[in-house]
Design a protein that fits this description.
- The chain has 10 helices and 9 strands.
- With 289 residues, the protein is an alpha/beta fold.
- The strands form 2 sheets. A 6-stranded parallel β-sheet has the order 1-4-3-2-5-6, with helices on both faces.
- β5, α7 and β6 form a beta-alpha-beta unit.
- α9 runs antiparallel to α10.
- The mean pLDDT is 97.
- The chain binds adenosine monophosphate.
- The site of adenosine monophosphate has 15 residues, from α2 and β5.
Length: 289
């Protein structure tokens, strides 16, 4: 079922809740790919009803970013989401979500201010605001997000906790192309040569993971491994390369064994900005650093 009106969405959710249905939400900006599909399929397995939202949220795009040219194809998205097992596709209009006079935004604080937050000021304010609105409209029990946008999952966890949303957050692994490139709606911007170059993000993450597995614990060394792989590709421009504690995004000089860390990358391939990440745990049996 396709719903575009906000009041209809709220009525549908009220009915589902009064029938004791467990509602899962999968928020997306559309142009669905297999990463979205895995979220929808998992939600369909775990919940009684799934609402996939499709909304290119203007509030999370900065001036000069790709809001206007972001790929859109609602008909195709409806077919994919249905096939993946969604119950409802909620695709509201910009005007309905942000009518004239709209002013309220949500600022989640420090976790949103580094990395993506530094390079895309206001981005997470836009994300937190639209997700809170979707939570209020859909009243889900479980929310599904991808690890692909790792920092976003921390922002959503903070939002849910701080604003007392009675919602369980489920974060699912990044779905990749066979050569390692993380699936993204933005991959359609890449020319064939850029598409080949774009595997550099995955290769950089692998190089750093291998160094950590070999015993590297110094943050700057881990970051240097990623940097040198990326710098070997002339079309690649680094926005940031970081190793950080997975839960807080703190960046100690040296990681300690047993610590869960995240490797974070934002790289421009030509004019296309791509992000990727990997999680790992610092091993105990390091023979060298
Ligand atoms: P987007 O439409 O890009 O805003 O993404 C909507 C949701 O899908 C977010 O929770 C993303 O993290 C998730 N997602 C995007 N790409 C992938 C991927 N390659 N693997 C898993 N989840 C993804």
């Amino acid at each position: 079922m396709l719903i575009t009106a906000l009041d209809e969405m709220q009525r549908w959710s009220d009915t589902a809740r009064s029938a004791s249905k467990i509602i899962g939400i999968v928020p997306t900006m559309g142009y669905l790919h297999d990463g979205h599909r895995s979220l929808i399929e998992t939600a369909a397995r775990e919940c009684d009803a799934v609402v996939t939202t499709i909304f290119v949220n203007p509030l999370q795009f900065g001036a000069g970013e790709d809001y206007e040219r972001y790929p859109r194809n609602l008909e195709r998205d409806v077919a994919i989401a249905r096939d993946a097992g969604t119950t409802v596709i909620f695709a509201p209009s910009r005007q309905a979500m942000y009518p004239d006079g709209y002013t309220t935004t949500i600022d989640v604080g420090p976790i949103a201010q580094r990395f993506e937050g530094t390079h895309r000021p206001g981005h997470f304010r836009g994300v937190a605001t639209v997700v809170a609105k979707l939570f209020n409209l859909i009243k889900p029990h479980v929310a599904y997000f991808g690890q692909k946008d790792y920092q976003q999952t921390l922002v959503i966890a903070r939002l849910i906790s701080d604003l007392n949303f009675d919602i369980t957050l489920r974060v699912l692994p990044t779905v990749r192309e066979s050569d390692g490139l993380a699936m993204s709606s933005r991959n359609v911007y890449l020319s064939p040569t850029e598409r080949a170059d774009a595997t550099v993000l995955y290769r950089a993450l692998q190089a750093a993971l291998e160094a950590i597995a070999r015993g590297e614990r110094e943050r700057l060394h881990v970051e240097a491994h990623m940097r040198s792989v990326i710098e070997s590709v002339p079309t690649a421009q680094i926005d940031y390369v970081a190793a950080a504690r997975a839960e807080t995004l703190d960046q100690p000089d040296v990681f300690v064994p047993g610590e869960k860390i995240v490797l974070l990358l934002a790289v421009r391939i030509g004019s296309t900005r791509l992000i990727d990440n990997a999680l790992t745990t610092i091993p105990y049996d390091s023979s060298s650093t």
